[in-house]
Amino acid sequence: MTTDTLKRFGWFLIFFLAQVIVLGRIHLFGVATPLLYVYFVLQFPRNHPKWALLLWSFSMGLLVDIFFNTPGVAAASLTVIAAIHPYYLELFIPHDSPEDLRPTLKTFGTMRYSNYAIPLVFVYCVLFFTLEHFSFFNAIHWLLCVVGSTLLTVALIFTFEIAKKK
Q1: pTM for this one?
Q2: Are 75 and 58 in contact (CB under 8 A)?
Q3: Distance between CA 127 and CA 96 in Å, rounded?
Q4: Run means of pLDDT, 10 residues per run, the chain, 166 residues
Q5: 100-126: string of b/e by CB count within 10 Å (b at 16+)?
Q6: Are 128 and 57 in contact, with CB atoms under 8 Å apart?
Q7: Which of 4, 38, 65, 78 has the fewest CB atoms below 10 angstroms from its CB?
Q8: 3-state secondary structure of 28
Q9: How far is CA 98 from the centre of its chain?
């Protein structure tokens, strides 16, 4: 195994355990849940094999589904994000940048990283809560869950990025 794979497995365990032990139990105002494991997908570098990204993402989502009894919801949502991630990332990377550039607050800057991370987290939350609720009967609650979880997750991601930056 390469050191990159071992590091990625370490991050996988950290995000999974943080979600299962701590973050999965937080429900601010009954609607906002931090879904920090999405950040695991956002960290993948440019030109990482797409099959590996899909496999890592599906595995993370499946484990989260198993522990939170959400059959296939996190796995499907995270796999969709992993499928669009490489193409979406190319919109923010200059053509003369290194092939293994990692999308971070330090390499992108605040505005570009915000434009990169927030829409992906929002799409993930829309997919996750749409599949979880599986109806638009209570659209206000669905919308509050999507917006609240997106804001809370983005705040945690930026906090993590700022802590890594220093």
Answers
A1: 0.91
A2: yes
A3: 34
A4: 84 91 85 91 88 94 91 94 92 79 86 93 95 82 92 94 80
A5: ebebbbeebeeeebeebbbebbbbbbb
A6: no
A7: 4
A8: strand
A9: 23
User: CB of 41 within 8 A of CB of 82?
Assistant: yes
Q: Please report the sign of the dihedral spanned by the C-alpha atoms of residue 82, residue 83, residue 88, residue 93.
A: positive
What pLDDT is recorded for position 1?
60
What is the secondary structure of 91-138 as a DSSP string? TTS-TTS-TT----HHHH-HHHHHHHHHHHHHHHHHHHHHHHH---TT
Pairwise CA distance, residues 26 & 29, whole Å? 9
Distance CA 154, CA 166 (A): 19
Question: Distance between CA atoms of 23 and 79, rounded to whole angstroms?
Answer: 20
Chain Cα centroid distance, residue 139: 23
Q: Are 33 and 19 within 8 A, CB to CB? A: no
Torsion of CA 30, 159, 115, 107, to 10 degrees: -160
Residue pair 30/73 in contact (Cβ under 8 Å)? The answer is no
Largest CA distance in the chain: 49
